[in-house]
Amino acid sequence: MTQNSASKLLNGDALHRTKQDKKAGGNGFVKNRCLFQQKRCRRPAEKNHHASCTLLYKKPFVESFEETPLLVAVLTYIGYGILTIFGYLRDFLRDWKFEKCHLAREREEQKDFVPLYQDFENFYTRNLYMRIRDNWNRPICSIPGAKMDLVERVTPDYNWTFEHTGNVLKDVINMGSYNYLGFAENTGTCADAASECTVKYGVGVSSTRQEIGNLDKHEELEKLVARFLGVESSMAFGMGFATNSMNIPALTGKGCLILSDELNHASLVLGARLSGSTIRVFKHNNMQSLEKLLRDAIVHGQPRTHRPWKKILVLVEGIYSMEGSIVRLPEVIALKKKYKAYLYLDEAHSIGALGPRGRGVVDYFGLDPSDVDIMMGTFTKSFGAAGGYIGGKKELIDYLCLHSHSAVHATSMSPPITQQIITSMKCIMGEDGTTLGQERLCQLSENTTYFRRRLHEMGFIIYGNNDSPVVPLMLYMPAKIGAFGREMLKRNIGTVVVGFPATPIIESRARFCVSAAHTREMLDKALNAISEVGDLLQLKYSRKNRNGSEGTDCFSFLESHQD
Amino acid sequence: MNVGVAHSEVNPNTRVMNSRGIWLAYLLLTTALHVVLLSIPFLSVPVVWTLTNVIHNLAMYLFLHTVKGTPFETPDQGKARLLTHWEQMDYGVQFTASRKFLTISPIDTCEHKTCYFYTKYDTAHFVVNTGSLLSVLLPKLPQFHGVRLFGINKY
Predict the structure, then answer these.
(1) What is the rounded average pLDDT of the residues A525-546?
(2) How many CB atoms sit inside 10 A of residue B113's CB?
(3) Which residues form the signal peptide (chain B) (predicted)?
(4) DSSP per-residue letters across B31-79
(5) I want to staple A392 with a disulfide (CB 3.0 to 4.6 A). Which of A126, A232, A293, A396 is the partner?
(6) What is the pLDDT of residue A42?
């Protein structure tokens, strides 16, 4: 039984592995040769299968997605039901002119034509989103650092129009910006270097990369990024979204297979669709699902002709921004090597935020960067700039230089932004002569652990890996989405809340992004406010053991077994 | 908050009936309707059962088989605009767990008890109940997927 608890420590979720030895089937022939098998029986596992999975993971991989309590789910549906009924009522009143209609309508003369808009497609926007619209698109009038200034808005007609009062809400604690290492600042070496660069190069590039827009700064940046990641060469693009959506079509085409995770970002999905390849989706972070898809794909080949696929590309992200989960990279690499597929890793949120040296999820797991065929990432999150990069072998990057849509048609990166990335990257690597980068990395990981631990102890349901700086806090009910955003703003803390249809219908959440710029007292202030609001709105749904860490649990468990 | 920004689910409507707790919520709502009707003093028990059956089937017909499209814009350029919610469920795959549940529940909870027991086999009640049941069972058959009789509710 102690084996079971040990396996729970290593894999916090219910992913069990049976023996890697083959099991003989009914008529003696061997059935499952999968690397990772589904859980079959509840016998305590033997030692040798632990060897196979412990070898891949050098430290415990603890992820939790606590299930929605049933009562909360039922109440959430009732909430949406009431909102729907009121929505129909308000639509009726608007139609019959009892209530003023703020929407775009067709002109009177065109009333008998075929309608331009479908009223029902807008139902959610006008009846649910409009009611709590003041939680989004809040104008910021300072740098989005650890604290920011918000423009105060009032609405005379329930969020249909906003007016600025002229006041500014000062020093709102920023828990929503992707400012993981705190490089969003207007003072310091990065800002000075960027302003010098603006003076020398100007702001605009006025050309695409292939024509006249290739600056020496870009070449410098690319060499630096390649050194940072540990790959042969890299290429930088002006926009992170465009990096994904414009490069995947250059890499795959008809006759190729793309296996993408369920919760991949819109840019990856768009890129996959634009490429024209067959797309198959595997369950989020589920290695059995991925393996099954790979095996089926290789065995059956292309859909009708059954010819072998030209290539198979697995699309995963480093940290999934809505769930806070980290990809199971060691297992993905093991699968990719076994089935000879290619791996495209999108490190938008994890580059600079994970790993002891800040080199992303590959560094976090201690793996070899050359195992990942295409390493993609963005400079928006941890480097305080904009744009994206792709890193890999020299042949790959040379090919992309010629064939990527972004390189051929899109303007290249602006010079001050390039300089900002160069300076911040050198800072993280420690090459600017200070230990500032290392301090920030340590501060971020301390802040993450502290923040998650405190929230967990308070009794909130938090999704995701214990090491990810993205912390989704579950709200569930539609009214609480609006209430949480507004109450937090009253307490001078700015948060990002998300609801249906961006998330599954019952899983609305508030998403916090921990930053290295947050000091311990800022986090304490935020945590106290969250606890207050949590008590007010009754958000503390968690029913797991909250006292102490897992170490205490294991210890007391072993203690009781020694009797 | 737009569809498709956080996950690659093109039409979230397809997954609603599979979410956690929705079957329970549906059953609770039907029971609540029945209890509310039972508390009206001048209605007798057989009438209340028939009324529950009829109102439940009417609501189910309205929400699952009349209302078309999605209340939000989807990134698939409107493939589901002309489909009712029943046809959108699980992207049109037939005989999934939710479909089976929603087919059996009007038969079991409402029809079984009202027709055969509480109305004491009265002819009028039987006709009303069976008619209402048929109106909600026929659209669920796989053969009726996408069928619009007499052009009603086509666009």
Answers:
(1) 89
(2) 15
(3) none
(4) HHHHHHHHT-TTS-HHHHHHHHHHHHHHHHIIIIII-BS-SS--TTSST
(5) A396
(6) 41
ipTM: 0.92
Residues 6 or more apart whose CB falls under 8 angstroms from that of A53 comprise: A10, A11, A17
Displacement of CA A339 from its chain's centroid (Å): 27
Helix/strand/coil percentages in chain A, nearest 5 = 45, 15, 40
Contact criterion met (CB < 8 Å) for A502 and B1: yes
In a domain, B150, yes or no: no
Q: Do A66-174+435-543 and A189-429 have matching folds?
A: no
pLDDT of A545 > 70? The answer is no
Summarize pLDDT for A333-344 with one digit per residue, the tens. 999 999 999 999
pLDDT digits (tens, 9 = 90+) for B68-94: 988 888 888 888 888 999 999 999 899
What token pair was written down for B10? 């093109």
Tokens of B61: 């017909």
Interstrand relation of A163-174 and A147-154 (parallel, antiparallel or unpaired): antiparallel
Whether residues B15 and A505 touch (CB distance < 8 A) is answered with yes
How far is Cα A135 from Cα A481, in angstroms, rounded to an integer? 9
**Nearest Cα residue to A195 out of A387, A378, A417, A381:** A417
* Cα of B19 to nearest chain A Cα, Å: 8
Tally of structural domains, chain B? 1
How far CA A103 is from CA of A119, A120, A240, A275, B68, in Å, comes to 10, 13, 34, 37, 21
If one looks up domain A189-429 in CATH, what number appears?
Answer: 3.40.640.10
**Cα–Cα distances in angstroms (integers) from residue B18 to residues B31, B101, B102, in the given order:** 20, 11, 11
Q: Which residues of B touch A67 (CB under 8 A)?
A: 20
Instruction: Report the gap between the CA of A242 and the closest CA in chain B (Å).
Output: 15
pLDDT in tens, A112-170: 888 777 788 888 888 999 999 999 999 999 999 999 999 999 999 889 999 999 999 99
**For the domain A66-174+435-543, what is the CATH superfamily, name and number?**
Aspartate Aminotransferase, domain 1 (3.90.1150.10)
Q: In whole angstroms, what is the distance from residue A108 CA to residue A375 CA?
A: 55
- B147 touches A at CB < 8 Å: no
Answer whether residue B1 is part of any domain.
no
pTM of the model: 0.85
User: Where exactly are the structural domains of chain A?
Assistant: 66-174+435-543, 189-429
CB contact under 8 A, B6 and A502: yes
Q: Is residue B18 situated within a structural domain?
A: yes
Question: Which regions of A262-306 does DSSP assign to beta strands (E)?
Answer: 278-282
pLDDT digits (tens, 9 = 90+) for A329-374: 999 999 999 999 999 999 999 999 999 999 999 999 999 999 999 9
In Å, how far from its chain's centre is CA A133? 23
